[in-house]
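Notebook B, p. 112. Complex prediction, attempt 2.
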Amino acid sequence: MDLSSIKQSVLLGDAEATIAAAHEAVAAGVSPSSILTDALIPAMEDVGNLFACGEYFVPELLMAARAMSAAVEVLRPTLARSGYKAAGTVVIGTVQGDLHDIGKRLVAMMLEGSGFDVIDLGTDVAPEQFIAAARDNDAAIVALSALLSTTLPAMESTVGALRAAALHENLRIMVGGAPVTDDFARRIGADGYAPDAPGAAALARRLVGPHGDADAN
Amino acid sequence: MTGKERIMTALAVKQPDRVPLYIHGINEAPIIGIGRHLTDGLPEPRQFHEMDPGEKMKLLNTLFLLHEEFGVDGFTSFEIGHEVEIDAGHVKDDWGIVYARSHHGLPVAKIHPVRNAADLDKYAPPEPSRAHLLLLDMGRERFAGSTALFWLMRGTFVRSWRLIGMENYMISLRADPEFLHRVARMVEAYNLQQLEMLAEAGLDVLVVEDDIAGTDHPLIAPKHFREFVEPYNRHLVERAHALGLKVVRHSDGNLWTLIDTLLDSGYDGINPLEPQADMGLAKVKDYCGDRICLLGNIDCRDLLPDGTPAQVEEAVRKAIEDAADGGGYILCDSNSLHPGVNPENCIAMFQATKKYGVYPSV
């Protein structure tokens, strides 16, 4: 079955149309996991590309992510029964001392739109909270956000604490936020940096991909 | 020329006697760090609300003093007294917006009192209060006409999203555009009313502070900006001009897709021209430097926190080379002198402006 109507609905940020198209596909015998991996996730990749080239802006990202989430909620019971596994769990939060939420929430939405389970710890998150959440949820990735240059030291110490906790060797750490740069990410020992929300979703997919952290940074 | 004459000349895109120096925003820590070069008895850096009355007066005096001693030509003021403390970590402003206090700078809006049209039907916006202009009054008394008086006024986008929530604003662009227009009209009415008070109080330069862009793109589509934001801000520009004021537009980020709209609104200046957001001075000067005064661009993200005074001096020299030709450039940093900047670098920026900013006499 042609899944383009699902993709188109996500691109338009139309949650009702996305749900309707997903129902239609299920009724036609398309598996929920195929709807997710062949339509919803690629649609969000397209949304990310449109954002990167300046055709889409934050509202369009939000609307698309909401449409995708609404469809995933519809599919979730069947997905769970079919043994579908998410791309991994990402624990995300804004580092200690930093109260900014908006950019981090956008990244969380884009990660969900890329097939990750996301645990959002909010803002002003202490290193031990990141460690506990990553351990308790067997996280594949911890994502750290900071908006202020004065909270970058907290980002560095959080990366250090996560490394020292040695949760598991495959745990990946990604960082982002206005003052963060690729150089800074490398210097503090993060596995990757992305400049915006769609970039973060693409980075997360690379980090959990077959080559792990290769070329991710 | 006095500092005020210098600033007003540059904002008219003309050449003053030297490149004017301005501080758009400055936190407690750099006031204290810079101030220690000028005066004794300053408290350890902490937030204003944590200081006792004597320390607060000392801090304000030091703020004035550093403008005088380093020849800063413009003084920035903003509303004070419009917030009440809810608890040690939170304040609420007169719009009902609740902010979490931050040890790293300005409070962050967390609770937004108006979520939808039904909320708005019941909502009573605040009235601007003359008492909240106290900092402007103090600046006017202290500088006695020698320094241009600036006022930071939150613009339509920032006031609107703080009132209704950023995500809600974004969703409402499609879900309920009339709701956004109603909020914008309410914000505009408040701002226009406050503008009358400001002009009466002796203001020289209105700064419409309305961050609308990230490092690469605007936060909202240019078509939405042209519909929901700029028409309302433009009314501020028009009224301010009628009152004899100059108007500077402040927005972080990459403004290239909005710049023609901003120019069309008639602003006299644009700030802060972030180097990391492709707002390099040479490029902006080339595009519109004959139509609008440029304010900013000395990098406060990397250079002022982590660079050396020599690097800052070179950045100032280059900024003047790129933007000051023929006038229409006011030197300041690329956003604010925040708690992370090195005070020695700020002083280097002030001194280098004097060293390299003198125009040849005609």
